[in-house]
Amino acid sequence: MHSCATAVAKKAEVIRERTGYQVGHYCGEIGQDFWDARRWLREFDTKHVLVMTAQILLNILRNSIIKMEAINLLILECLHAMKKHPYSLVMSEFYHTTPKENKPSVFGMTASPVNLKDKADGC
Question: Could you tell me which PANTHER family the record lists for this protein (predicted)?
Answer without folding.
Answer: ANTIVIRAL INNATE IMMUNE RESPONSE RECEPTOR RIG-I (PTHR14074:SF16), HELICASE WITH DEATH DOMAIN-RELATED (PTHR14074)
